[in-house]
Structure formats: structure tokens, C-alpha cells
Design goal:
Radius of gyration: 30 Å
Largest sheet: 8 strands, parallel, barrel
Shape: elongated
Catalytic activity: pyruvate + acetyl-CoA + H2O = (3R)-citramalate + CoA + H(+)
CATH architecture of the largest domain: Alpha-Beta Barrel
Oligomer: single chain
GO molecular function, one term: 2-isopropylmalate synthase activity
Bound molecules: acetyl coenzyme *A, pyruvic acid
Enzyme class: transferase
InterPro entries: 2-isopropylmalate_synth_dimer, AIPM/Hcit_synth_CS, Aldolase_TIM, Citramal_synthase, LeuA/HCS_post-cat, LeuA_allosteric_dom_sf, PYR_CT
Strand order of the largest sheet: 1-2-3-4-5-6-7-8
Pathway: Amino-acid biosynthesis; L-isoleucine biosynthesis; 2-oxobutanoate from pyruvate: step 1/3
Number of helices: 16
Number of domains: 3
Number of strands: 16
Length: 553
């Protein structure tokens, strides 16, 4: 796992959001985000993640709960020792109010918050009578004292304090005055922000908006919002709270968090900045969203969600032909914003749903202008539809589609198609000897005017075939040096009868010696998995040789 953050222009990091302290973007990826099943950050991961969040320009980074977990205690110690260099963000320690019947200064957990040396502390407090009585098992009055005492103690020690009111909305429904008394106890003792938490994530946007607006009106306190995503409404609820007067939003990167997760930082930022026009990030930070989201996914060891709003790789991908035909006129007709604003790209997907406009736009991505060639476009559309019906899939195999397009274009222009090599035959043997299973492949190809025969072994039939083919081509096609197969996926399609099924193979390749190590994917389809693999392998190598050559047989 990567533990070092990519380099960034540190001089820019001192820029604050134009709204300054008037609006807080508070990230809790390293505290609530770490409560997601499957995430375990090392201290080094946390330092790298905090650096990335700082680069994005969030105002506050909640780093964890010092005193509760040795790793979190160590994180704050190493941060204080200078290992974490933040530009504009401030580090926040999380913890709970003192225990019932214990003085704040004697409570070890509260002491650990001070020892963390974080300038800001978020205290979690019970604000629902049922939680005070049944979970905390103390009196309502003692809970108010726990809040007031702990805040006052930390403020007297020079800390800025935010209060997370757990289960605020359910509590408000059960006994609204009690939640307000908790908020009042905190503010009277010196807390800056009362954060209303939808802890079990059960709120709906309109109901939540109503409560936030009422609390704002009744108290005038600075309000924050913390939404869990159990009903899939965390982002909508966060935005509703801001529209009702909250000026502090707590979110996690990619929505990581306990159970169904939290409000996704990137969706909230996109909505606040782009849709509501609130400049809550320093200027020019929004295009960092995709990079930071993906780097944080890497640190969490979770594959990025391709369909995530704003930052997913498919967030601006268009598959339907009707969409492409409008996009050809103006991308704004089907994009809710220019993807570059958030550091993303638009993609046109070629599938059975493609129309002529899809093909023309995709061709442009390859640098090919098909304007004035309507018959080529129509032929490609028809070919794609027919092939996809037979099991091909071009949306994940741009390279095979580009080869198809170039072949059709060359044929329409009457250009001679010169295949870089042609196959005479191949043979693959799978042999079990004792417990060992070995594969051997022989290929006979014609390349550079010669007939070349090569045999290779491999850990599987495709690996053997790949090795034999590369070996046969190596002397004549040195440009293939450094081209490597990096992924191989097989899918059995619509088979009712086992071996009669059609097999689709996707091969991902990379050119390790070329600048930027480009990657591409090719596809093959056949009832025989080896032949399907051969087709995808051949496309991969022909694609690697560049546009001056045409497809092989
Ligand atoms: C809504 C949220 O997500 S808040 C964040 C929650 N995060 C975590 O819990 C992760 C870290 N937690 C831990 O490591 C442990 O739970 C610890 C160290 C905090 C506490 O561990 P333990 O002392 O073994 O207690 P345990 O976890 O069983 O119970 C929590 C205790 O805190 C008390 N407590 C709960 N909320 C509060 C509060 N706001 N103020 C004071 N005490 C509280 C509970 O009543 C319980 O007290 P008890 O031990 O007297 O019964
Ligand atoms: C504080 C917190 O994480 C919650 O109430 O959900």
C-alpha cells in the first residue's frame, strides 16, 4: 500500500477558503471513515491521508481518538513532532465527554485529548434522553454537567471545542428541549459549534431541514451537520442542513464510515461549490478532487467506485447513442458540469447502444475525423451492434474498437491493409505429469517476409501462447519489446450447455518502456477460450505497433 502522498505545490497550500472560518469543511475520514468495516489505517497511512486532505483544502482534519487506540495516540504524537506538515488545515482530536461522576481533569480519556496537542477537540455527547438514560445510564442533569465541565476544561486549556450531539434528530423528536439544553451547556462553556448528528442515518432531507432551521432560530448557535448514510440521504441531508443555516459540514472521503457510511466529502464539496456557489475551498482546489479521492481509496485499500458522483471514472461516461448525439452538439446538454472543473474527464462508450454520433465522438478521441464519411460511420455502428449481439464488448476494449475503426477507414479510403504478421497455425498442449500441470504452445507465423516457428512453455495455455507469439515476433518487430500482458479476464456468456458457451476474453496490456507506461485493453470472442484469447492477444500487439499498421488475421 502506498504511504507517501504525491508531491504537491506546497506554496499554494497556505491559501484559505475565501469564506475563512465562516464556513467549516470538516473531514472525518480518519475517525468516522476508519469505522468502516474493512478499513485499517496504519499511522503512516493516516499521515499520508491527512496530507492529501490538506492539499484538497479542507479546513479541519479529524485524525482519530487519542487515548482510545494506541495507533491514534501515536498518530497525534507523530503529527505534533512535525511528521505531518499541514498547509491550511487544522488537526482535530475526537473524544467523548468525561465519565459520569468523574472530574474532567481526572478523566484519562479527556487528558489524552489534551496530550494529543491537537489545537481543536471534537467532543461527542449524548443529546437524546433515551441514550442518556439507557446507554450512558446516568441522569439528564449529570449528562449536562459532563458536557459543560468537559468543554470548559478544554477551553480553559486553550483548545477550540466543537460538540458532536449524537442522535440529535431522534432526540429532538423524543424531547426537543433536552437536545437544546445540551447544546446550550456546551456553548455556555465555550464550545464554538454545535454539530447535529444524524447518528443512525434515518433522516430525510425535508424533515432534517425543518429541524435545523428551527434550532437555528431558537438558539442562534453556530450549527454543524454530521450525517450517516443509512437511507442513502447523507449528502442530500448535509446540503439541506446548509440550506437551513448550518455552516460546518462533517464528511468523509468517498463516504467511508460506520455501516452504510457518511456524507461523501467529494459530493458535498461539488454541490456546495458548483451548485450552491459557496466558495468553501481555496481557489483552484476543486480540480484536485479526482486525484485526492483515488489516492485516498488507495490508502484505504478499497477500489475506487467508478460510479461515484463527481469523481468516479464513469461519472461523465455516456453510453446511450441519444446522449452522444446531443453531446456532439454541445457537451453541456448531457453533463451537469464541465468534468474538468472537478478534475474528471468525459468518455464516450462504444457498445450496442451506440449510434453514429457515439462513433464520431469516439473517433475524435483517437484523433480520427469521420466527418464526411457517413458510410464508414454507419458500417462501424452496424458492425459493433452485430458483434455485441454475438458477445463482443467494446466499452472496456477501446483498443480493439480503434483497430476496427482504422480498418474500416482504410478500406473506405482504398488503402492497402498491411498486416504486421499473419498466422499460419498455432497449437496448444496442456499436459499433466504427476501433480504438475504444464502448458506448451507452438505458433507458426509469417513476419518480415519470413516463416517463423516458435515453441514456449507457460503456467497456462494463454501464457504459453503469448510467450510463443512474442518470441516469434521479437526479431522483426522490436517495438513490441516492453509490451506486457497485465490483466486477463474471461467471461462465459449465455451458455446453457457448458462447453457450447461463448467465451469473451479481455486482455489489458501495458507498454512498460514507453513514456507514461500507457495501458490498453482488447477483446476476443469465440466458443473456444484459447481462440478468444488469441484474438485479444493479437489485437493487443497490433495496437502496440501503432496506427501505421493494420489488423492481422
Ligand atoms: C457515534 C460515534 O460513532 S462516536 C465514535 C465511536 N467510536 C468508537 O467507539 C471507537 C473507539 N472506541 C474505543 O476504543 C472504546 O469504545 C473506548 C476506548 C472509547 C471505550 O472503551 P471501554 O472503556 O472499554 O468502554 P465501552 O466501549 O465498552 O463502552 C463505552 C463507554 O463510554 C460511555 N460513553 C458513551 N458515550 C459517552 C459520552 N458521550 N460521554 C461519556 N461517556 C460515554 C458508555 O456509557 C460506556 O461507559 P461504561 O464503560 O461505563 O459502560
Ligand atoms: C459523532 C458521530 O460520528 C455520529 O453521531 O454519528
Amino acid at each position: 500500500m502506498t504511504t507517501t502522498a504525491p508531491a504537491s505545490p506546497r506554496s499554494e497550500l497556505l491559501q484559505l477558503s475565501p469564506l475563512g472560518d465562516a464556513f467549516h469543511v470538516f473531514d472525518t475520514t480518519l475517525r468516522d471513515g476508519a469505522q468502516r468495516e474493512g478499513i485499517t489505517y496504519s499511522v503512516a497511512d493516516k499521515i499520508a491521508a491527512a496530507t492529501l486532505l490538506d492539499e484538497l483544502g479542507v479546513g479541519f482534519i479529524e485524525g482519530g481518538w487519542p487515548g482510545a487506540m494506541p495507533k491514534d495516540t501515536e498518530f497525534f504524537a507523530r503529527a505534533a513532532a512535525g511528521e505531518l506538515k499541514l498547509g491550511s488545515a487544522q488537526l482535530v482530536a475526537f473524544g467523548s465527554t468525561r465519565k459520569a461522576g468523574v472530574r474532567a481533569q481526572d478523566d484519562l480519556q479527556v487528558r489524552a485529548l489534551l496530550d494529543s496537542r491537537a489545537p481543536i477537540v471534537t467532543l461527542v455527547a449524548k443529546s437524546d434522553v433515551r441514550h442518556v438514560e439507557r446507554a450512558l445510564r446516568t441522569t439528564l442533569e449529570e449528562n449536562l454537567r459532563m458536557v459543560g465541565d468537559t468543554v470548559a476544561f478544554l477551553v480553559a486549556e486553550g483548545r477550540r471545542v466543537f460538540l458532536d450531539c449524537e442522535h440529535f434528530f431522534d432526540g429532538y423528536r423524543a424531547d426537543r428541549d433536552y437536545g437544546l439544553r445540551v447544546a446550550e451547556a456546551a456553548v455556555t462553556a465555550g464550545a464554538d459549534v454545535v454539530v447535529m448528528c444524524d447518528t443512525n442515518g434515518g433522516m430525510m432531507p425535508i424533515g432534517l431541514h425543518e429541524v435545523v432551521a428551527q434550532v437555528k432560530e431558537r438558539t442562534g448557535f453556530r450549527l454543524g451537520i454530521h450525517c450517516q448514510d443509512d437511507t442513502g440521504c447523507a449528502v442530500a441531508n448535509t446540503i439541506a442542513a446548509v440550506q437551513a443555516g448550518a455552516t460546518h459540514v462533517q464528511c468523509t472521503a468517498n463516504g467511508y464510515g460506520e455501516r452504510a457510511g457518511n456524507a461523501d466529502l467529494f459530493a458535498v464539496l461539488g454541490n456546495l461549490v458548483v451548485k450552491l456557489g459557496l466558495p468553501v475551498l481555496p481557489p483552484d482546489r476543486l480540480p484536485e478532487m479526482v486525484r485526492v479521492s483515488h489516492a485516498l481509496a488507495e490508502l484505504a485499500n478499497i477500489a475506487p467506485d467508478a460510479h461515484q458522483a463527481y469523481v468516479g471514472s464513469s461519472a461523465f461516461s455516456h453510453k446511450a447513442g441519444l446522449h452522444a448525439s446531443a453531446i456532439k452538439v454541445d457537451p453541456e446538454l448531457y453533463n451537469h458540469l464541465n468534468p474538468e472543473v472537478v478534475g474528471n474527464d468525459m468518455h464516450i462508450l462504444i457498445t450496442e447502444m451506440a449510434g453514429r454520433a457515439s462513433v464520431e465522438l469516439k473517433a475524435k478521441e483517437f484523433g480520427l475525423d469521420l466527418a464526411g464519411l457517413p458510410e464508414v460511420v454507419s458500417k462501424v455502428v452496424d458492425t459493433v451492434k452485430a458483434r455485441e449481439a454475438a458477445g463482443w464488448s467494446y466499452e472496456a476494449a477501446d483498443a480493439s474498437f480503434e483497430l476496427l475503426l482504422r480498418d474500416e477507414l482504410a478500406a473506405a479510403r482504398g488503402e492497402a491493409v498491411t498486416a504486421p504478421f499473419t498466422l499460419e497455425s498455432y497449437r496448444v498442449i496442456v499436459e499433466r505429469a504427476g501433480n504438475a500441470v504444464q502448458s506448451e504452445a507452438t505458433v507458426k507465423v509469417h513476419v518480415g517476409g519470413e516463416r517463423v516457428i516458435r515453441t514456449a512453455e507457460g503456467n497456462g495455455p494463454v501464457n504459453a501462447l503469448d510467450s510463443a507469439l512474442r518470441s516469434a515476433l521479437a526479431d522483426h518487430l522490436p517495438a513490441l519489446d516492453g509490451v506486457e500482458l497485465i490483466d486477463y479476464k474471461v467471461r462465459i456468456l449465455a451458455g446453457h450447455a457448458g462447453t457450447d458457451s461463448v467465451t469473451r476474453v479481455l486482455v489489458a496490456s501495458a507498454s512498460t518502456k514507453a513514456a507514461g507506461a500507457p495501458e490498453w485493453t482488447t477483446v476476443g470472442v469465440h466458443t473456444n477460450v484459447v481462440e478468444a484469447s488469441w484474438q485479444a492477444l493479437v489485437d493487443s500487439l497490433v495496437y502496440a505497433l501503432g496506427p501505421t499498421v493494420q489488423s492481422s488475421s
